[in-house]
Amino acid sequence: MGLNSTPRSERFHISIFGKRNAGKSSLLNALANQDVAVVSEIAGTTTDLVYKSMEILSIGPVVILDTPGFDDEGALGALRVKKAVYALKRTDAAILAVDATEDDEDNNIESLLKEKGIPFIKVYNKADLIKDRKDGLFYVSAKTKEGIKELKEKLSKLKKDGGSEKRIVSDLIKKGSFVTLVIPIDESAPKGRIILAQQQTLRDILDFGSYALCVKDDELEEALKSIDYKTDLVITDSQAFKKVSKIVPENIPLTSFSILMARYKGFLSDAVKGVSAIEKLKDGDKILIAEGCTHHRQCQDIGSVKIPSWIREYTGKDFDFSFSSGIGFPEKLEEYSLVIHCGGCMLNEKEVLSRLNLAKEKGIPFTNYGILISYLNGILKRSISMIDDVKDFLS
Fold it and tell me: Does the predicted model carry a pTM greater than 0.70?
């Protein structure tokens, strides 16, 4: 990702669905104005999700997903269809492509889109190959580009306004505030850069017209002394919560990047509600620890090593831990007693919330790294005290 690129997780996700040979890949190429996806007359050419990041006027940065046909057949075809179904979880808006020469619609796809509450545009592709057109249908041709400009305009209207722009932390501080960011640089830190949640938080602070001091956890105390503790907020990497909370005076608000990301992605309240489930766990219960990224796990990895160790230490019990990363979130959650998720900075909001909703449907408590770690260290109240969204839980 370039320094000026919008992360995929922050882009509006548009998926193209339809039967095999409806011209989905051709539509992607027409929208992108370049050959992104392989196009063939052979049905079932697209065997996996194809992503294209681009800009669409009045929407801004988007990701367009080309999906396998929903009518694929056989054992391999079933796996391809599963990929298409997975795309629903991260889709903000959809294009439902129909082959205008066949007029062979798939009501199953349309029903799924409606069931998931995904806004969509139904397009009748290959309009260049037909003479008679039915009134009220939207015809396009990926080949001649007929209707492509209009399709982009229709997609623009599908993006919900949502009122004021969501912010990570700037709506919690005043202009000119001084914020201290605690960023551990250890063997698990990415080489030569800081992680996405830290980048985004820093940029939000600077865009808002406030000031940031970035410091490593082992230099925090010295740094705070050098500025006479004149900081309005301290944001730490969650794994350093215990150490940082002892250094930062009680009168200075303290939270973590993970907690702010849970708020930004829309699941903070559920994470706060779910964390108390830790008190009801029994020996042998299964716990799922899920991450949205696929980083190489180090010997002291936060998800697979530190969190399990801290939970065992806090409860005095032993549990059966399972781990998932990237898109590998399990469909069947019934066997788990708790789901612990990362902040979700590498996933778009739609996908994070689909995971949350899946857990809620199964009655499985759902929390996140930052909330859990602050809870285990007895500082949950302090870590969320400045966030109005969850003040009701402080009592």
Answer: yes
